Amino acid sequence: MRRYRNVKILATLGPASDTPEKIRALYEAGADVFRINMSHGSHEDAAERHAAVRQVEDEVGAPIAILADLQGPKLRIDTFAKDGGELLEVGQAFRLDLDHTPGDARRVYLPHPEIIGALKPDNTLLINDGKIRLTVTEAGSDYVETRVEVGGQISNRKGVNVPDVEIPLAALTEKDREDLEVMCSLGIDWLALSFVQRPSDVIEARDLAAGRAAIMAKIEKPQAVDQIDGILDVADGIMVARGDLGVELPAQAVPPIQKRLVRRARSMGRPVVVATQMLESMITSPTPTRAEVTDVSNAIYEGADAVMLSAESAVGQYAPQAVAMMRDVAEAVEADANYRIILTRSRTPAEPTVPDAITAAAREVAETLEVKAICCFTHTGTTAMRMARERPLVPIAIMTPIRKTARRMALLWGAHCVVTKDVGRFKEAVISALEMAEQHEFADHGDYIAVIAGVPFNVAGTTNILRIAQVGEKVGPGDTIV
Q: Using one digit for the tens of pLDDT, what is the confidence trace for 182-193?
């Protein structure tokens, strides 16, 4: 089923969307990528959802990407002696320590010595998604004393955020390592890595995945924002995870950070997903708020590769409607002349390399000659990501003999992925592209398409040929290569 939009829609699977019939309904409504949240459910649940997506993929005959979202470390306080916890008053002292005794109004056990060892006076601690704010006044080897800045009810196992300290804690827990291995063995396409603070966190996940899945770094901590260039150097893509980011940073800081992250990812040719609370009211309502529609629109205007639904599609009462609403918003934005102006003005100049020059030239030629589509032959997806970075006016048809590559690239802006036969000569590639363009209704007889590829074939990073071909023409060995 061909999409007539560029931005992709990522839908999270859950109780409201975990059968082949429900997943098919989401796909037909516009979902391009499906997310399996490893924070919930068992490995058996994940395997069933994975199999259901693959069944739908077989039915519709188009590559579908699956993203497994690893849970990451969950930092929490321990329990309290009193049922319901305690009420903290503004200005009072409150201690977090390594004493296993149940907590009271003066202290609680924090089972994370890494946090206690990293904290210093004036650092901030946030409890229960930031509802309680503490400032460190004294730091010892096995405790920290704090002053309550924002009080409220504190109770068992509430989450802890430390916004202004890099915690010496790996992004991958033992659970994450087990989940990673299970999901890679199933054949998922993307791994979303939580709690990323530094490039080394991404490198560890890449080493464990060993090429079996692309790595998407979730940017949800201020430390990751500060090191975004280093993270983008080693990640295959990023997700702007605005939920946790909005806890650790002032709410008003998140929109400009989102814009900056999207621009930076685009400039480096990495796909970027904008996530969290995009159509949250549609969990229980058949229509979104106007503010939510504007939020989705802004992410699309910025040039994000994909926008994501979380609880809206996982547990929501109106999952297909939420996907359809995102689709409708995307089509409306992309029909606006300002959308193209914004993307053009935010385009990054090509790097001085042959592959970058070829993809930039393909975009220029397509806009000059009214070419109907740009067909990219790729094995690894590198050519496709370079082409998507250009944000061309015409569709990008990604042609690859490797189904796994086609699935991964289904997340990419503007990408229409086709699994094709392997070709060994450029002439065969052109013929295959012309047949595909007509079959998939990109071009009619007499229309032009652009074909880019690398010779020799099957060698990564060799994109070096651009050819303009006309549907219906005779392709011979003497044709001119543009």
A: 999 999 999 999
Q: Is 3 left (phi over 0), alpha (psi -120 to 50) or beta?
A: beta
CA separation (Å) from 6 to 288, 386, 414?
22, 15, 4
Sort strands 160-161 and 152-154 into parallel, antiparallel or unpaired.
Answer: unpaired
**Lookup: tokens for 423:** 């070709």
Six-digit token string for 238 = 């990023």
Domains, in order of start, for the chain: 8-73+171-336 (3.20.20.60), 86-161 (2.40.33.10), 354-470 (3.40.1380.20)
> By C-alpha distance, which of 120, 41, 115, 130 is closest to 75?
115
Give dist(CA 113, CA 168) in Å, integer. 10
The residue to which tokens 């934005």 are assigned: 333
3-class secondary structure, 385: helix
pLDDT in tens, 27-55: 999 999 999 999 999 999 999 999 999 99
Q: 273 CB contacts (<8 Å, ≥6 apart)?
A: 10, 216, 237, 238, 239, 240, 304, 305, 306, 307, 308, 411
Report residue 160 as tokens: 């802890």
pTM: 0.93
Residue with tokens 């504190």: 154
CB proximity list for 62: less than 8 A, separation 6 or greater? 1, 417
- What per-residue confidence (pLDDT) applies to 476? 60
* 447 close to 469: Cβ distance less than 8 angstroms: no
- 109 DSSP β-pair partners: 97
